Amino acid sequence: MKKIQGNDVICVDIDKNKVDKLNSGQVTIFEPGLEKLFLRNQKEGRLHFTTALAEAIKDAKVIILALPTPPGEDGSADLKYILGVADDLGKIISEYKVIVDKSTVPVGTAEKVHAAILKNAKVPFDVVSNPEFLREGVAVDDFMKPDRVVIGTTSDKAKKFMNDLYAPFVRQGNPIIFMDEKSAELTKYAANSFLATKITFMNEIAQLCERLNADVDMVRRGIGSDERMGRRRACSAWTASRDRCAQSGYGCGNRARTNTRQTDCARVRSIPALLREERPHQDDRRYDRVVTTAHHQ
Questions:
Q1: Mind spelling out the 3-state secondary structure of 43-56?
Q2: d(Cα 202, Cα 101) in Å, to the nearest integer?
Q3: Domain 52-179 has what CATH class?
Q4: What contacts 269, CB < 8 A, 6 or more positions away?
Q5: What pTM does this model have?
Q6: Cα R_g (the chain), whole angstroms
Q7: Residue 92: closest CA among 54, 59, 129
Q8: pLDDT tens string 153-187
Q9: Does domain 187-296 match CATH 1.10.1040?
Q10: What phi-psi label fits residue 213: left (phi over 0), alpha (psi between -120 and 50 degrees) or beta?
Q11: Domain boundaries in the chain?
Q12: 97-101 and 9-12: which strand pairing?
């Protein structure tokens, strides 16, 4: 997303106050390493902020939708912001564009975005699913040196644009994995759910360690040294706080939302989702147990 890799970036937000702050050099979120990149690219004229969508996308080849998807009353993702922007884009694009879904969205969102744009579009375009796998606290490093890049599209033209966009970030040989849109969307949910399941497993092991007078940190180190498991991902909420989980490379905060959305996705398609429905309750019991134990100590 930075010109150091050959790109000019224009960011659009409806919040004028935030845009004014960003244009004045104030970074509105904290992430290690972000401010340095932000200020350097802004100083060199490669990074801009505006509230004018039509002006921002006029010369853009790739338009990335990084929008909030707050949970609705039933816990499912609310796509009103994404679909609202998609509707606006259909009215203003005047040449071929690649529109990229970057937000965590339910399977089938790319189709909905395509339909929303198509209602008013008079030029060809492609919608691509490109989920992010950034960890809080190391997001800049994860973006600059990704383990993998997942791109969902069946369009050869869009593949060329996306391959050119990400090529500078995978020079060390990490893969760009192309697949269909729905598979890319599900990959994000599957990854989140799998990591959350591993935390739940370690919670169970931690409880067992307490009963057997074993050291869960030693157990965690013992299994985490296995390349198939990974040290950063063998984290227990039983003995580790949410902060320590985040420091280990996995943010615990969105587990319940991920589980709810994945379960909702399964229900819509009448697919059993017992594991995803049960896991949040297991985790809640673990945290309740942590509080109770701490209270008695």
A1: HCCCEEEECCHHHH
A2: 33
A3: alpha beta
A4: none
A5: 0.77
A6: 21
A7: 54
A8: 999 999 999 999 999 999 888 999 999 999 999 99
A9: yes
A10: left
A11: 52-179, 187-296
A12: unpaired
